Amino acid sequence: MKKSGKYIISKKIDGVFTTLYDVYRFLLRFFKEVLFPPYEFKELVKQCYDIGYKSLPLITLTGFITGLVFTKQSRPSLAEFGAASWLPSLVSIAIIRALAPLVTALIAAGKVGSQIGAELGSMKVTEQIDAMEVSGTNPFKFLVVTRMIATTFMIPILAIYTGVVALAGSFINVTQNEQTSFSSFVESSLQNISFLDLFSSVIKATLFGFTIGAVGCYQGYNSSKGTEGVGKAANSAVVVSMFLIFIEEILVVQVVNAIR
Amino acid sequence: METSENKRSVIVGIFVFLGIVLFVAGIFTLAGQQKRFVKSIELNAIFDNVAGLKVGNNVWFSGVKIGTVKKIDFYGTSQVKIKMNVEQEAQKYIHKNATAQISSEGFIGNRIIVIEGGNINLPVVESGDRLHVKKALSTDAMLEDLQANNRNLIEITGNLKVISGKMANGEGAIGALLTDSLMAGNLKNTMAGLNSASQNINRTAVSLSAFSNKLNTKGGLVDELLTDTGVFSQLEGSVGNIRKLSVAAASLSEDLSTAGQKLNDKNNAIGVLLNDQESAASLKKTLTNLETSSQKLDENLEALQHNFLLRGFFRKKAKEEEKMK
């Protein structure tokens, strides 16, 4: 948003704070719109389907490979001092505490965030959003709220799938090398996992989902400059959401460790 | 369009439902593993040092997980009070004088509390009871002992170094043995001699063994002596008789000695005969006279046989003797 007159600090710094203010207003509007009817359930289900269900194959493959490869790569270090039996415990801690929500969020940021940014950006530059307003439909509620809610709810569910599939990949590798039974694997996997780990992981995924939705919608909804702006919106949606995901990861880990 | 939307809704519903089911299943599995749904009792223990024990660490009894550490608080000036949840199922195995000890799941594993059951004659613990604490073997103590061993090892190797140096220089008996070829030759000969002696000893031992086997042969004298009580009593009787006989022999010998002494005296007939030379000469003369007399008597009797008065009697007697044959 352009400001007339003199800049308070400098053009760039003022621009950063202006963007933050715009984000604040965007989020405030979201919370206002989400609480009050009318609710766009059909669009919400459609978004959940697109964001959640359609991402499942990609997430499943990524999660499986993550679990398998992480186990395979961790084995030599543990086997070196005869602690290969700790692999399930180590891998499950890594997957449940960090990898499942993080990998899911990063994949979703790439797939869903860019999709949302490009979709809303193209609608913006082609003035479809303005047309919706003219036709009496609240474009923010229909386009933004549904997508943000969908990402907020679907990413944690995808993270749960990722966790399960990654542990399955880990189990396959462990059972191939150590002939560990499934029950023994589950037993040792959950040995060092607490409820705090489970809930913090789900909460973290929820936060990541909200971030992906918010960043994608914000970038798309506020895109400009024609088709170039659409590409920029899609790109920014991915880059900014990934950056914020890592920042949030650090913050959440600090908070969880303080509680632990 | 409507059908497509319905289908999409169902798919999303199933997708969300399965996600939630997996999450709930994870929670229940975790809760089951952590015995969250199992009835438990609370036990306490006060340790001087918990060595990094954390809330949620396991409590073991006979190698089986029976609970978890619930709370860790400081107690008194520097002690630590541990509250632990223990399965009610395991309560019957833990008695009043049971002990709790800080241990480890492995060499580098998590800290755990190990409970030892105590005396079975005592009643079982109840919720809120405080367990006795058994001091764990700390790594620091082990390292201290190891350090002492290291110092000893250094001293021993130092001594060995000195000894081996002396040996290499030919000092002392072993050094001389190693360096002096003559001494080594002597030692070799000695060893050969010892070897031969040991072979002889072996042979002797074999012979002794054979001999002892013979002694132990059933029915042998030694075997009878050692095993048959009848033979022993007979032998004992014989020894008694020999003892009596020796007493009698001693008495006889004494009598003989007395008699000998008397024979040496001249106050009796035999003593006079044996010791008095005059009497002996007189007796000798008497005997000579007797011999002469008997010869003369013999001649006289011969003459009588040829006398006419007695000749008939002798002829008659000779005929009767002839008939008797």
TrEMBL record, chain A:
Keyword Repeat present in the record's keywords: the answer is no
GO molecular function, one example? Answer: phospholipid transporter activity
Question: Which residue ranges traverse the bilayer?
Answer: 51-71, 83-109, 148-174, 195-221, 233-256
Question: Matching InterPro entries, A to Z?
Answer: Permease_MalE
Cellular component (GO) terms are:
ATP-binding cassette (ABC) transporter complex
Keyword Transmembrane: yes or no? yes
Q: Identify the keywords attached in UniProt to this record, alphabetized.
A: Membrane, Transmembrane, Transmembrane helix
Q: Which PANTHER family match?
A: ABC TRANSPORTER PERMEASE PROTEIN-RELATED (PTHR30188)
Q: What is this protein called?
A: Phospholipid/cholesterol/gamma-HCH transport system permease protein
Automatic annotation (TrEMBL), chain B:
Q: Keywords assigned by UniProt?
A: Coiled coil, Membrane, Transmembrane, Transmembrane helix
Q: Where are the transmembrane segments?
A: 12-31
- Give the protein name, as stated in the record: Phospholipid/cholesterol/gamma-HCH transport system substrate-binding protein
- Mce/MlaD domain mapped to chain residues: 41-117
Looking at the record's lineage, which domain of life comes first?
Answer: Bacteria
Coiled-coil ranges from the UniProt annotation: 280-307
